[in-house]
Amino acid sequence: MTINLGDNLRVSPLGLGGMALTPVYGPADPVESLATLNHAVDVGVSFIDTANVYGMGANEELIAKLLKDRRGEVQLATKFGIASNPATGGREVRGDPAYVKESVAASLKRLNTEVIDLYYMHRLDTRVPIEETVGAMAELVAEGKVRHLGLSEVTAAELERAVGVHPIAAVQSEWSIWSRDVEQSVVPAAARLGVGFVPYSPLGRGFLTGTLQVSALAEGDFRRRIPRFADGAIDANQAVVEVIRRVAGELTINGAAATPAQVALAWLLAQGERLGLPVVPIPGTRRSARVDENLGAVSLNLSEAQLAALDQAADAVVGSRSNSPNWVSQDRE
Predict the structure, then answer these.
(1) Is 116 helix (H, G, I), strand (E, B) or coil?
(2) Pfam families annotated for this entry (predicted)?
(3) β-pairing, 47-49 with 15-17?
């Protein structure tokens, strides 16, 4: 089963976010990560998402091992735009045409493939007009290096300007029960322009599963720096998880109890139907069992009462989803 995400790009109804397959949330076993990738494709989760910055290229190199024998089974997405800054030890954003061309060449080499199915601008370089960046990306399509274009964390106005240069298949931004700011302007614009939506962190960076112990996060885990994970906010936000748990307790999938993760993903899929655009979440995991669990959400139907309860719970979320100015579209809307 596939769906038309946008610009006639057909993908599986659920994707797999690759970031967690390398050490971002803690140590990752490359053997287990590759096994999880293969299992995902085996069970029909063939839309695989990565980026050049994940593991500083190591994530793309890992996915190359999957592609070696299964390239024709995978809809491959990767990104450019977040660059390390040796001068500060931090990160910078680049969207100049020279960097676009440099980045795609490096990604194609690491992925050991001739073409990328969906190539995203990972973040907007506010120093460069988006028309200039997308124009350089469009050249990659003309050259056969990329099939479709995507944008991550753009505003409605920025999306409109980009579509004026080249068709955009998808917008990728954080979207979940506790991250709904994109519904105000970006999602309606995408629906109107025929652009699909790919929610990243659809499980709230693990929080909405009800299994995350925030106090146990490793010192280097970047979630510790996100405002809504701060001590005061996380206690208040636990109320959202309790509503998700209650809804999960009312549902079964193939005779088994539904899980909070499945409910959170099913809510997003229902939002796509309610708001009139294709929505393909890309939950990340290192474990094959979690792939199977997440996939169950595709067949889970939420009642109007359950959707209303989840909507109401979302209104009580405390804390921002970002701690960096201009890092997410909400800051520029």
Answers:
(1) strand
(2) Aldo_ket_red
(3) parallel
What range does the domain containing 155 cover?
Answer: 3-331
Q: Please tell me the predicted confidence (pLDDT) of residue 232.
A: 79
Query: Binning pLDDT at 50, 70 and 90, where does residue 85 land?
Result: low
E strand or H helix at 192, and its extent? Answer: helix 186-193
Active-site positions read 54
Q: What are phi and psi of 100, to 5 degrees?
A: -60, -50
Give the largest Cα separation in the chain, rounded: 56
pLDDT in tens, 88-138: 667 799 999 999 999 999 999 999 999 999 999 999 999 999 999 999 999
Q: Walk across the sheet containing 170-174 and list its strands.
A: 15-17, 47-49, 75-80, 116-121, 146-152, 170-174, 196-200
Q: Which two tokens stand for residue 230?
A: 């701060």
Which pairs from 158-165 meet CB under 8 Å and 24+ separation?
158/124, 158/130, 158/329, 158/332, 159/186, 159/189, 159/190, 159/193, 159/195, 160/189, 160/193, 161/130, 161/131, 162/130, 162/131, 162/134, 163/193, 163/195, 164/131, 165/131, 165/134, 165/135, 165/138
Query: Token pair 């007009």 is at which residue?
Result: 129
pLDDT per residue as tens digits for the range 185-244:
999 999 999 999 999 999 998 889 987 777 667 666 667 778 788 877 888 888 999 999
CB atoms within 10 A of CB 124: 23
Write the single-letter amino acid at 48: I
Q: By CB neighbour count within 10 A (0-12 exposed, 13-18 middle, 19+ buried), where does 26 fall?
A: exposed
- pLDDT computed for residue 286 by the predictor: 92
The CATH number assigned to the domain holding 81 equals 3.20.20.100
Domain count, the chain: 1
